[in-house]
Amino acid sequence: MITTKSQREIQLMREAGRIVALAHQTVASMVAPGVTTKQINDAVERVIIENNATPSFKGYGGFPYAVCASVNKTLVHGFPNHKPLVDGDIVSIDIGANYKGYHGDSAWTYPVGEISDEAKKLLEVTKNSLFVGLSKIQPGVHLGDVSYAIGEYVTSFGFSLPIEYSGHGIGSALHEDPSIPNIGTPGTGPLLKVGMTLAIEPMVHVGKPQTITLVDGWTVNTKDGSLSAHFEHTVVVSDNGYEILTTL
Ligand code: MG
Ligand code: MG
Predict the structure, then answer these.
(1) What does the alpha-carbon distance between residue 143 and residue 179 come to, in Å, rounded to a whole number?
(2) Separation of 102 CA from ligand 1 center, angstroms?
């Protein structure tokens, strides 16, 4: 069931989203060669707790950390660790915060030092695809139109999207209906309504779309070892479009 949220609920999600954005601001200031993803995880957890929220991911399905930290060929759900980032890496940091029972969820892929032209293009296309998808959001539009816009944009650059990973509704649960694929057919799927809250999150591979999950049960890599990127915002459908909640 897809729910719409009350003004009170949206206000709580705005605060959860603001805290997630604050945490990303901290990440942006830290990412550099020599820094570890565990240091980033710990800094994010501090920001979330200092703002009277809790990390949505810690303990979710048994996930042990506050952030997902996914380097290079890791698409999503990577564990933060003590290995220093090196010049030329790209690192996706996915952050969720629970404020008074409501969640914000946002991922961003950061360049570490000087990155390759291929990596730069991947980051640019994936980030742009998020905003291409968001630009379709307004009441009365089919969700498939959003998915289609993301998929068409990404594949026009020769990149691919793994079909098994999607965006999602969000609210008092981190993952709610509907599932929001990053590939779709126009004019299909549920109709968007004012007050629906959605996490739109294109995940993109330079190479083929297939993925493999490591024996830790979480870390998802591109099967062909190609680079991957992930950009995500939580938004609410508004009278004339959408409002990004995971922003300052
Ligand atoms: Mg996320
Ligand atoms: Mg999400």
Answers:
(1) 10
(2) 14
